[in-house]
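Batch job 17 of 40 flagged for manual review because the log was empty.
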Amino acid sequence: MPNPAQQTHFGARTVPLDAKQDLVDDVFHKVAGRYDVMNDVMSMGLHRVWKDILVAKLNPPRKRPFRHLDVAGGTGDVAFRVAATGAEVTVVDVNPEMLRVGETRASRRREGARVSFVEGNAEQLPLPDATFDGYTIAFGIRNVPRIDLALREAYRVLKRGGRFLCLEFSRVDVPGLDRVYDFYSEAAIPALGKVIAGDGAPYRYLVESIRQFPPPDLFCDRVLEAGFARVGYTRLTGGIVAIHSGWKL
């Protein structure tokens, strides 16, 4: 009988832990080319506002060098925002198709010259200790098979005084909005994925993965266990998403 400790969730399914990464890779292989367009459609453009708030919280100083790491951000959406402040940004993503989209976008943008792209796994970053002043991961942590390993890696690569920020879907806490949001995400998003990206199944997984992600208080406990201090979170848009924060002190 399989050891439950060696199993995890892939959307609504229970799968072997070692199988999840390949399944996630297949999802993003299918949607890479239309990923940013679908983000606009699914969130009605709100993902842009959420990412702007994320970078505002990071608040990179403009008068001294700032090295930043954006994980699971292959298309560069967060990285370009951070680079626009003058920071040097490294993007790490496990999916080469997503990275190719980001590199193509970077070649067309002025701030793209300050962004580099590296293929790598959030659970084992191909980067040295204490290298970065900031770390972000937007809508990526819930797709990582071993979240606690990824959090420890975030702590490892940050310098003392470095900040961890995670933008992720959360639990709606406004009565009435929760039912509307559940209906929209379960019925409309996979249908939109089929029309725009040509396949609804990856978006059905993405919706299901949101349901499996821990509520903000429990995720904060895991961030604390990774070594971070001054851990907290901010809900946005009625709790549809939350920004989690921690510092390496």
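Reviewer: the log was empty due to a logging misconfiguration, but the result itself is present. The beta strands are 7-10, 13-16, 67-71, 88-93, 115-119, 132-138, 158-169, 229-236, 241-247. Unflagging and moving on to job 18.
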